[in-house]
Write a structure and sequence with these properties.
single chain; 118 residues; mainly alpha; 3 helices; disordered N terminus
Length: 118
């Protein structure tokens, strides 16, 4: 098995995982598996945040943190969802139009705030 073989990685969908998901998925991996991912990352994308997350998890394990249970390959990677499209804004829900304040323009006069003593 070589590190170039993506199927041989402890996380088969590793290249598609966002950093936030990766952080949770690596919690059940051993130090040798983390080393394998780290080596693969350095040879390919070498993303600073990914290297940082894997290195931090290795430090946790070296300090005695337990492996989490579960199969990291059993979860599907997060993907950006597609909305239903369109806008939920309607004339009834949109704010009243407002003009920007006339700061710094001598040809526009400010509006009085009204009587505030009442």
């Amino acid at each position: 098995m070589t590190t170039h073989d993506r199927g041989g990685l402890p996380l088969p969908d590793y290249d598609q995982l966002p950093v936030g998901t990766l952080e949770h998925r690596i919690r059940s991996l051993s130090v040798p598996e983390l080393d394998q991912l780290l080596h693969y990352e350095h040879e390919h994308a070498d993303r600073a945040m990914v290297v940082q997350v894997i290195t931090a998890r290795k430090r946790q394990l070296d300090a005695g943190a337990p492996l989490s249970s579960g199969n990291p390959a059993a979860f599907k990677p997060e993907t950006a969802g597609h909305g239903q499209g369109g806008s939920r804004v309607s004339p009834a829900t949109s704010p009243e139009p407002m003009s920007p304040p006339p700061h710094g323009t001598p040809d526009q006069q400010g509006k009085p705030k009204g009587d505030r003593t009442g």
